[in-house]
Amino acid sequence: MKPSSRRNFLKGLGGAALALPWMESLACASPDTTVPKRMAHFYVPIGVVRRGFFPGEANDVIPEGNLGNVMSSLGKQDPYFSVKPLDKLTPTIAPLERMKHKINLITGMDRTFQQGTDVHAQCASCYLSSARPYTIKGTAWPLDRTLDHLVADRVGTGTPFPTLEFSCNSHRDNKESIYFDNISWYGTGHLAPSIRDPRKMYQRLFSTRENDRYRDVTDLVLEDAKGLKQELGYNDRQKFDEYFQSIRTIETQMDRLEKMRSELAQVDFEEPTEAYLPRGEYIRLMGDLMIVALQTGLTNVTTFMVGPERWDTPYMFESLFDSPRSHHQMSHNQTKMIDDLLKVDRFHMEQFAYLVEKMDNIDQADGTSLLDNTLFTYGSGLGDGSTHQYNDLPIIVAGGGRSVRSGQHINMPEGTPLANLWLTQARMMGLSMDRFADSTGTIDQLAAE
């Protein structure tokens, strides 16, 4: 078998294609072993409960089973600039404890709401554009070409997919408009549609035919892969086996969810069938697909929506509740449901932490990890879902490697535009830009000296 670079494809008998990750044994076959820069955005809808997420706004310790009992010793976000080591993590952020040396908590980031559209719709659709209010003509939305596509214009020209848009909204009821359910836009009024179905995303990535006898990509390519495997060293054979096992695990997870959906369809539920699909498993499956796409060089830029804004359709947050619950409805009843909301916020952070750790365990050609070469940002377009506030947004930046100074809590001065972070990231990704949207500067404390 002819040696192949990590971006080449193994093709099976059915026309399926599978991209290889980087392997040391194949490095000599590739004239370019430069590790690419990557960017990914993990979007959480409806904001967070402030007292669980932000330092200084809750007790240091919230007793398990009594998460809402945090009314005493409440603090307030410091309106002035400060930078300090990221020490003790708040209850919502605690799942990132093992990775806190590779993350930055950034507080004090604000956005400006432009009157004329729904607050939830604008917070999602304009999250990555943040155009200056009333500057986009002919539309009620301050929505311009989003950061992911501007970055892809620079780093996505050599990949099969300039960008990939992932969504974990499995519902099909189309309750709200596209502005509630998408953060990636080619430009004003031009949506970059996301893929919600894991099987469809899998088919897009690996070109599988929609035919049962061609569904298992690993079965198709293993015969061709045997020759390549013989050329690999011991460590790369281990990586090779782990990689194919991860692909097969993804296939197994998809089959399980599809079988569950089929079985649930036979039952008369008041909620949509998809409400009973395990939420965490669904998010992690889509996240695994995103990581494979980044790992193999299929794309360098992704967006990942955990869920849509304001939809009242319920989800099964397994391990949290006995029945499906609506995140949006809970957010507007914080007085009675504070414990449940804090659990949901931590649940979402656990999914983000899972992806951060998995990316950090994937080796790259220069000895760094996939996470080290990816700006991976957790964020929401609202600071608090119950009050619809656009200030003090919850933002965490993971990864970035040598270009980022990590392990910090960066508290920006009150009123700092979120677009300052996007301008900072655009420059880190190699773009030469003086300004992005309504930015007023960059976050210099994020960049390594």
Order of helices and strands: EEEHEEHHEEEHHHHEHHEEEH
The residue fraction in helices comes out at 25-40%
How are strands sequenced across the largest beta sheet?
4-12-5-11-10-3-9-6
**Class based on secondary structure composition and strand pairing:** alpha/beta
Just name the CATH architecture: 3-Layer(aba) Sandwich
Give the rounded overall mean pLDDT. Answer: 84
Quaternary form: single chain
Please report the total strand number as a whole number.
12
Poorly predicted ranges: 1-7, 60-75, 210-214
Structure description:
By secondary structure, the protein is α/β, with parallel strands linked by helices. It has a single domain (38-446), classed as 3-Layer(aba) Sandwich (Alkaline Phosphatase, subunit A). The protein is built from 10 helices and 12 strands. The chain has helices at 50-53, 119-125, 147-155, 198-206, 217-230, 234-264, 279-295, 327-331, 334-360, 419-428, and strands at residues 9-11, 17-19, 38-43, 82-85, 103-110, 164-167, 185-187, 190-191, 301-305, 374-379, 395-399, 408-417. The strands form 3 sheets. Strands 4-12-5-11-10-3-9-6 form an 8-stranded mixed sheet, with helices on both faces. A two-stranded antiparallel sheet has the order 1-2. Strands 7-8 form a two-stranded antiparallel sheet. Strand 7 (185-187) and strand 8 (190-191) form a beta hairpin. The model is unreliable at 1-7, 60-75 and 210-214 (pLDDT under 50).
Please write out the topology.
Elements: E1 9-11, E2 17-19, E3 38-43, H1 50-53, E4 82-85, E5 103-110, H2 119-125, H3 147-155, E6 164-167, E7 185-187, E8 190-191, H4 198-206, H5 217-230, H6 234-264, H7 279-295, E9 301-305, H8 327-331, H9 334-360, E10 374-379, E11 395-399, E12 408-417, H10 419-428
Parallel strand pairs: 3-9, 3-10, 5-12, 6-9
Antiparallel strand pairs: 1-2, 4-12, 5-11, 7-8, 10-11
Helix pairs in contact: 4-7, 5-6, 6-7, 7-9
